[in-house]
Amino acid sequence: MTVPTGLTSGTWSFDPAHSEVGFSVRHAGISKVRGSFKDVDASLAVGSSLEDSAITVTIMTTSFTSGDENRDGHVKGADFFDVEQFPEMTFVSTSHAGSGESYSITGDLTIRGITHSVVLDAEFNGVAVDPFGTTRAGVTASTTISRKEFGLTWNAALEAGGVLVGDKVTISIEAEFVAPVPAAV
């Protein structure tokens, strides 16, 4: 399979200023809480085909933020991410499929030292040259995981039944990558 139109071969670098990795999870069965990670690094290695291409992502768990200091402290603690013992989460793609704008990216997601294969539903948003002459590519992707499968099992029972934190977590990604700079001749 061919790579999306406009992606040139080489390693595209992640642009954290124009990207976001976040998630949402059901809270008390009645609403969703959202959080994001501020320290993310990724690379997009584009080969001659999709099969020859790869995406790698490293997320520093200490960079989690939800806008609430108490919740952030709890989520960074041993009940959830345990950032002291597990300072990183990673994703390494293992296969890619699709064409045009719609793609599936399968890869190994590791959280708390536990790795499972996940499939990201991805939309290739195209390639553009910004006003400063930099070539950029955009991708939107998402997946839903079971937090329990990754050892994130803490919960509290609710008086009316149910639990405080849902099991299904939706991960959402908006990513921009910058094209490799051609070698000087």
Summarize the entry for a quick read.
The protein is mostly beta strands. The chain is built from 1 helix and 11 strands; from the N terminus they run E-E-E-E-E-E-H-E-E-E-E-E.
Please characterize this protein's 3D structure.
There is one protein chain. The protein has one helix at 69-76, and strands at 10-14, 20-27, 31-37, 40-46, 54-60, 64-65, 88-99, 102-111, 114-129, 135-146, 165-178. Strands 1-4-5-7-8-9-10-11 form an eight-stranded antiparallel β-barrel. The longest helix has 8 residues, at 69-76. It is mainly β and 185 residues long. It has a single domain, classed as Lipid/polyisoprenoid-binding, YceI-like (Lipocalin, Beta Barrel), CATH 2.40.128. The radius of gyration is 18 Å and the shape is elongated. The mean pLDDT is 90. The protein has one helix and eleven strands.
Topology, pairings included?
Layout: E1 10-14, E2 20-27, E3 31-37, E4 40-46, E5 54-60, E6 64-65, H1 69-76, E7 88-99, E8 102-111, E9 114-129, E10 135-146, E11 165-178
Salient structural properties:
Lipocalin; mainly beta; 185 residues; elongated; 4% helix
What is the percent of helical residues? under 10%
Beta-strand share of residues: over 45%
CATH topology: Lipocalin
What distance separates the N and C termini?
30 Å
What is the subunit organization of this protein?
single chain
| Largest sheet geometry | 8 strands, antiparallel, barrel
Total number of domains:
1
Please report the total strand number as a whole number. 11
By CATH, the superfamily comes out as: Lipid/polyisoprenoid-binding, YceI-like
Strand order, biggest sheet? 1-4-5-7-8-9-10-11
